[in-house]
């Protein structure tokens, strides 16, 4: 490792502009003549639109246009799509209702767009939006997925009778049932995974610019994957052909999944720009974000975990109902199936698993992937159940896990996944040591002396990321391949530009991707630039989500670097009249091994472009591209331990320590990896202790529509974290890396809930474990 | 429309704006100082924090007119001649930012905090004084670390200057 | 936000004149509640009259046991005043925990009590300290000032210019914040006057805003100790109930916060 190469703790190249207020986010963009869009949104969770009267609004100051969904339909703008086909167990395809960018007939959640106003200023647009008069015939609404499946409930889409989108299964039901029937012990639980709002700090925004002379559109948007946005807007929404549509995602202020999807607003801004003849910008406010950004989680499950007389797991049976909201968002169908049920084996050697998943429409905003996406739900279910089983069996939680760990690799689980490498014991040991697990009883006794209830809990998670092998996901229903692209351009002076289809929204790609180049060619980090986020600059890419930018995006860079290296060596060999196979690259120079002959990197680069003296037949220039399609998923895993003190008087939980021991394979920049873990843990703690989306079950009104009611984790809710890494390199990609973006959010919720229930001696507690709930649960045991 | 005059980052400005214009919009839209951000609409996230007459305030929760005549310092005015302020430098050294969106508010809050507490800051005080700033990326771990490092750095610098 | 016109008052008389020139004018001080409310289009004053720069409404004075705090004094100034910390540390403590540092730099005591948010901190202190609310027209006992949710005895155009109270022999404040908004879910201010009388005021929990709790007052008058509060029955029937706390939970919090306030006094 060099000081700037792979494994170095390099400070981030992108930081200076953010620290000086010079970052450029979508809402910072401004173009001449730009006007502002404000949406008229449904105040009802379910209603027929009877009429829309725009006359008052159209006459208001500054108003350029008031547009509706019918016009959008007339202009041929397509329905929003879901990109992953799931078939029910009876073989029928998922039942997908139509999702219009602007509703013209029926609204299905509070916040569904019904019209858009374009005006000179944001204030004028909002004033006029308020003056649009919409008459509704209000229909009954249902927000709870379990209830929505019952007979007699409001029906959202004619295409999906009973609100059922699919009824899907995985695994061997008969073998699972037989093992449960023969088990020495079965632990049964009902598990609720609470609904969350992702809340990147930058609200979504879009700026649509139509150039009538060129019949060309430009879209600035807060996207994790601008290329996918262009593809979908072009191929499915009929906004414009790809060569007439440029999508730019400049600096993106966090996403956590919620900025993967192509939402109605960016389509509307582009379309409205052509309709009105002015550039149109829309910026979400936070309340609009709560109403319209895709939410995450929202599962209700029952689980049976079976053990033999030696406390070995023999089977797992799961039944899950997943709330999809009012419409099927882009990846929604994959989340509770191939990103969830395929991880139900956890770190354990289950001989049999069966899971059944029903996906359900409700009158709530769409639910899709949010940091972890399916894997937190699987981990929470498994690790709460494993902990409960340990309590029931009278075995220590660590011991029960140890007995059941998978210990040889590769390991084929009963639910598709083939784990390639791991050492679960190592992470467990590291975490227990860091947490001083052995010293807990003394700490508990000391806390009791202060009137505090102290508890400890662990969670051993596994996830699948580095998504994903294209042929494999294609066979499972994915509408796209999940490879990544890269291009490495060496300039004539030896500086390097890396073009990547990954796109950072906080992960530090401008630093870590550059570290690969510095490591390979020995050039200074400052001489490497990363280009991303613009479809005019980078031809195609699949974007950043599912902890894929390291394992997939960087692997593509490595492939391109290989090609550049090969050509560079050929040029250097030619210049030094040496054999290509004798050339080594060291400290920014190409050398003939075992001699003092060398050519500086920049001189080789110059030679490539002057082309005065290249090997016979070689093309000038030094620029190589690559597409990398992963051979398998990657499988980060680890062990998290939470220790808490509960104040029985108020029910308030204080996290006294939080330990994370993760195996992410090889690490490019430990500082950045630790930062990803910290952030993930904070979101996991948020889910366990603080956060929860609540809709009024009768009216479908969103009750948690601002930070006044939705509890975001703040600095004083959290401790500092103890983070460590155990490394088993991933055998399936050139860098041996697995991915680290989601682990924190996956592993932490069950650790906390196990700790709190341990502290209060009552296992009947749902997330978020708010003071009120914990107080009530603690009292229930005390009485 | 009314004329509003104030000093922003040491420069006198006088601009027409609507009475309802918030200070944050005046900074972002009228003065093109887009470093100050808007992350919520209920005055909780602190992405909009600037200094008014030396004290941290939320620029989304006051009208531009309320700041008339005041000295405003925004994130753009913190670094001198391209040299990062010690708090900015500490955020970089300690990886106290990821997506960067909350960062301007965090940095302005940190400077205000250090102004008020100096070297007396400890982890608990820092966490309590971040009540008005929400970050979704970092889990605050490295923000707290950066602020403590900056406070120590600036305290040390202050002591050196005094000696 | 709807359109509005801003006016800066230079004196109380100037403020009254500016306010009276429009039917829909409102006073603004720190604006920490009013401006966010206007942003959400839940308030639409045609004109805003800014009181923050009126010199006669600023400042803290302690004369013997008599304390006067100008209405335009910020929470930050109250929390850091050495004079107040000596005379009534409980109110400094309360001010130091309102909102966040940025809010404390802008928000004022006058704005807080004139708004009488049911979850605001200051009204409980005013009530428990038996404070007098001084307006440009009269003096009103805190008891008579807070009349309900966001309701006060203020007449149209009337301005709170200061609050006065006698420094208590002992006083303490403890609150349990709403996990999301950080407003008080239950805040209890306990005060024992120089003559031994005890007043206990509760904010954040009452369905009709800030209120005094007779049971806690009687128990603490008889025995000024945290334990004494434990035996008091706090009736949940008049308490707020919402997503974050049922009335029953709030009743528990009132008792627990009372104990902690006494312990801190």
TrEMBL record, chain A:
InterPro entries hit by this protein: Ald_Oxase/Xan_DH_a/b, Ald_Oxase/Xan_DH_a/b_sf, Ald_Oxase/xanthine_DH-like, AldOxase/xan_DH_MoCoBD1, AldOxase/xan_DH_MoCoBD2, AldOxase/xan_DH_Mopterin-bd_sf
The keyword Phosphoprotein belongs to this UniProt entry's keyword annotation: no
Superkingdom, taxonomy of origin: Bacteria
Keywords: Molybdenum, Oxidoreductase
Organism this protein belongs to: Shinella curvata
Domain Aldehyde oxidase/xanthine dehydrogenase a/b hammerhead positions: 20-140
Gene3D superfamilies registered for this protein in UniProt: Aldehyde oxidase/xanthine dehydrogenase, a/b hammerhead, Aldehyde oxidase/xanthine dehydrogenase, molybdopterin binding domain
Record protein name field: Xanthine dehydrogenase family protein molybdopterin-binding subunit
Cited Pfam families: Ald_Xan_dh_C, MoCoBD_1, MoCoBD_2
UniProt keyword Oxidoreductase present: yes
SMART domains, per database record: Ald_Xan_dh_C
Automatic annotation (TrEMBL), chain B:
Source organism per UniProt: Shinella curvata
Pfam family, one: Fer2_2
Protein name as annotated: (2Fe-2S)-binding protein
Keywords annotated in UniProt: 2Fe-2S, Iron, Iron-sulfur, Metal-binding, Oxidoreductase
Record PANTHER family: OXIDOREDUCTASE WITH IRON-SULFUR SUBUNIT
Record Gene3D superfamilies: 3.10.20.30, [2Fe-2S]-binding domain
Ranges where the 2Fe-2S ferredoxin-type domain occurs: 2-78
SUPFAM superfamilies attached to this UniProt entry: 2Fe-2S ferredoxin-like, CO dehydrogenase ISP C-domain like
From TrEMBL, chain C:
Keyword entries, A-Z: FAD, Flavoprotein, Oxidoreductase
UniProt cross-references to SUPFAM superfamilies, sorted A to Z: CO dehydrogenase flavoprotein C-terminal domain-like (SSF55447), FAD-binding/transporter-associated domain-like (SSF56176)
FAD-binding PCMH-type domain segment(s): 1-170
Record's keyword annotation contains Aminoacyl-tRNA synthetase: no
Name assigned to this protein: Xanthine dehydrogenase family protein subunit M
UniProt key word Oxidoreductase: yes
PANTHER family with a match to the protein in the record: XANTHINE DEHYDROGENASE SUBUNIT C-RELATED
InterPro entries assigned to the protein according to its UniProt record, in alphabetical order: CO_DH_flav_C, CO_DH_flav_C_dom_sf, Diverse_Substr_Oxidored, FAD-bd_PCMH, FAD-bd_PCMH-like_sf, FAD-bd_PCMH_sub1, FAD-bd_PCMH_sub2, Mopterin_DH_FAD-bd
Stored Pfam families: FAD_binding_5
Coiled-coil boundaries: none
Lineage, opening ranks: Bacteria, Pseudomonadati, Pseudomonadota, Alphaproteobacteria, Hyphomicrobiales
SMART domains: CO_deh_flav_C
Organism: Shinella curvata
């Amino acid at each position: 490792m060099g000081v700037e190469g792979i494994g170095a703790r390099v400070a981030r190249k992108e930081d200076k502009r953010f620290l000086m207020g010079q970052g450029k986010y979508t809402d910072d963009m401004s173009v001449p003549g730009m006007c502002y869009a404000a949406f008229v949104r449904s105040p009802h969770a379910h209603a027929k639109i009877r009429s829309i009267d725009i006359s008052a609004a159209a006459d208001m100051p500054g108003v350029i246009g008031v547009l509706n969904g019918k016009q959008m339909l007339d202009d041929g703008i397509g329905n929003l799509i879901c990109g992953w086909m799931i078939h029910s167990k009876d073989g029928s395809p998922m039942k997908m209702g139509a999702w219009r960018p602007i509703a013209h007939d029926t609204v299905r959640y509070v916040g569904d767009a019904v019209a858009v106003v374009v005006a000179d200023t944001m204030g004028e647009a909002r004033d006029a939006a308020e003056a649009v008069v919409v008459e509704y015939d209000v229909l009954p609404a249902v927000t709870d997925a379990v209830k929505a499946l019952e007979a007699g409930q409001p029906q959202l889409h004619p295409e999906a009778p009973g609100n059922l989108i699919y009824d899907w299964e995985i695994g061997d039901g008969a073998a699972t049932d037989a093992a449960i029937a023969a088990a020495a012990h079965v632990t049964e639980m009902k598990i609720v995974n609470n609904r969350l709002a992702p809340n990147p700090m930058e609200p979504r925004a879009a700026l649509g610019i139509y150039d009538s002379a060129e019949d060309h559109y430009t879209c600035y948007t807060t996207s994790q994957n601008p290329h996918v946005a262009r593809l979908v807007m072009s191929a499915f929404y009929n906004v414009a052909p790809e060569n007439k549509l440029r999508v730019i995602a400049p600096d993106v202020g966090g996403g956590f999944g919620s900025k993967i999807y192509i939402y109605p607003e960016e389509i509307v801004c582009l379309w409205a720009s052509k309709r009105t003849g002015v550039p149109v910008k829309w910026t979400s406010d936070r309340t609009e974000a709560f109403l319209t950004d895709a939410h995450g989680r929202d599962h209700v499950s029952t689980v049976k975990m079976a053990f033999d007389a030696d406390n070995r797991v023999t089977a797992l049976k799961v039944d899950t109902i997943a709330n999809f909201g009012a419409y099927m968002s882009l990846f929604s169908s994959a989340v509770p199936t191939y990103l969830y049920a395929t991880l139900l084996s956890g770190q354990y050697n289950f001989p049999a698993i069966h899971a059944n998943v029903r996906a359900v429409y409700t009158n709530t905003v769409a639910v899709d992937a949010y940091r972890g996406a399916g894997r937190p739900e699987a981990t929470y279910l498994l690790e709460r159940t494993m902990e409960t089983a340990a309590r029931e069996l009278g075995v220590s939680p660590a011991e029960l896990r140890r007995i059941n760990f998978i210990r040889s690799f590769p390991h084929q689980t009963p639910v598709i996944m083939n784990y390639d490498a791991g050492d679960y014991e190592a992470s467990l040991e590291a975490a227990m040591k860091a947490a001083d697990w052995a010293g807990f009883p003394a700490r508990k006794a000391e806390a009791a002396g202060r009137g505090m209830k102290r508890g400890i809990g662990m969670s051993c998670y596994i996830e699948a990321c580095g998504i994903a092998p294209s042929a494999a996901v294609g066979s499972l229903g994915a509408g796209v391949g999940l490879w990544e692209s890269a291009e490495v351009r060496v300039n004539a002076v030896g500086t390097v530009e890396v073009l990547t289809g990954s796109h950072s929204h906080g992960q530090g790609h401008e630093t870590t991707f550059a570290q690969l180049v510095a490591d390979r060619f020995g050039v200074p980090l400052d001489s490497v630039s990363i280009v991303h986020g613009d479809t005019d600059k980078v031809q195609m890419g699949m974007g950043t989500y599912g902890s894929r930018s390291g394992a997939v995006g960087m692997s593509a860079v490595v492939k391109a670097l290989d090609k550049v290296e090969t050509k560079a060596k050929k040029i250097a060999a030619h210049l030094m009249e040496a054999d290509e196979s004798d050339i080594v690259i060291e400290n920014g120079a190409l050398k003939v091994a075992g001699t003092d002959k060398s050519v500086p990197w920049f001189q080789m680069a110059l030679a490539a472009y002057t082309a005065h003296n290249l090997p016979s037949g070689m093309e000038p220039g030094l620029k190589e591209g690559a597409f990398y399609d992963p051979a398998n998923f990657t499988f980060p895993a680890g062990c998290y331990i939470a220790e808490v003190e509960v104040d029985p008087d108020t029910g308030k939980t204080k996290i006294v320590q939080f330990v994370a021991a993760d195996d992410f394979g090889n690490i490019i920049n430990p500082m950045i990896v630790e930062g990803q873990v910290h952030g993930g843990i904070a979101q996991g703690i948020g889910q366990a202790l603080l956060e929860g989306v609540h809709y009024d079950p009768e009216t479908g009104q969103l009750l948690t529509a601002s930070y006044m009611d939705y509890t975001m984790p703040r600095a004083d809710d959290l401790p500092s974290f103890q983070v460590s890494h155990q490394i088993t390199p991933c055998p399936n990609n050139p860098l041996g890396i697995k991915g680290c973006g989601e682990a924190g959010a996956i592993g932490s919720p069950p650790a906390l809930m196990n700790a709190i229930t341990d502290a209060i001696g009552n296992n009947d507690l749902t997330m978020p474990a708010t003071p009120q709930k914990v107080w009530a649960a603690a009292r229930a045991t005390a009485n | 429309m009314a004329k509003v005059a104030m000093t922003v980052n040491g420069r006198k400005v006088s601009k027409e704006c609507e009475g309802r214009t918030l200070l944050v919009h005046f900074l972002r839209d009228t003065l093109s100082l887009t470093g100050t951000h808007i992350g919520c609409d209920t005055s909780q996230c602190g992405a909009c924090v600037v200094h008014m007459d030396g004290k941290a305030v939320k620029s989304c929760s006051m009208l531009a007119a309320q700041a008339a005549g005041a000295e405003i310092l925004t994130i753009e005015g913190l670094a001198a001649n391209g040299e990062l302020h010690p708090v900015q430098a500490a955020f970089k050294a300690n990886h106290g930012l990821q997506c960067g969106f909350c960062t301007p508010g965090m940095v302005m809050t940190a400077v205000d905090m250090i102004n008020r507490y100096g070297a007396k800051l400890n982890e608990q005080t820092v966490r309590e004084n971040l009540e008005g700033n929400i970050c979704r990326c970092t889990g605050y771990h490295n923000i707290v670390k950066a602020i403590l490092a900056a406070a120590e750095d600036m305290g040390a610098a202050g002591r050196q200057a005094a000696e | 936000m709807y359109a509005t016109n801003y006016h800066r008052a230079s004196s109380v008389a100037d403020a009254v004149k500016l306010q009276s020139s429009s039917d829909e004018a409102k006073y603004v001080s720190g604006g920490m509640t009013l401006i966010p409310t206007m942003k959400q289009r839940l308030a639409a004053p045609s004109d805003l009259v800014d009181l923050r720069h009126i010199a006669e409404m600023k400042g803290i004075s302690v004369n013997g046991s008599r304390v006067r705090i100008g209405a335009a004094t910020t929470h930050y100034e109250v929390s850091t005043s050495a004079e107040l910390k000596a005379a009534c540390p409980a109110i400094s403590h309360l001010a130091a925990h309102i909102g966040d540092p940025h809010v404390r730099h802008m928000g004022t005591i006058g704005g807080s009590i004139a708004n009488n948010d049911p979850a605001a901190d200051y009204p409980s202190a005013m009530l428990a300290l038996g404070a007098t609310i001084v307006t440009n027209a009269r003096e009103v006992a805190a008891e008579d000032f807070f009349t309900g949710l966001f309701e006060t005895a203020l007449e149209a155009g009337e301005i709170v210019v200061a609050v006065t109270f006698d420094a208590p022999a002992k006083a303490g404040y403890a609150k349990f914040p709403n996990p999301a908004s950080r407003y008080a879910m239950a805040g209890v201010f306990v005060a024992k006057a120089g003559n031994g009388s005890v007043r206990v005021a509760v904010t954040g929990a009452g369905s009709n805003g800030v209120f005094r709790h007779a049971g806690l007052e009687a128990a603490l008058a008889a025995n000024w100790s945290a334990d004494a509060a434990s035996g008091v029955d706090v009736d949940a029937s008049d308490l707020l109930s919402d997503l974050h706390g049922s009335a029953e939970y709030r009743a528990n919090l009132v008792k627990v916060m009372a104990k902690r306030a006494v312990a801190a006094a």
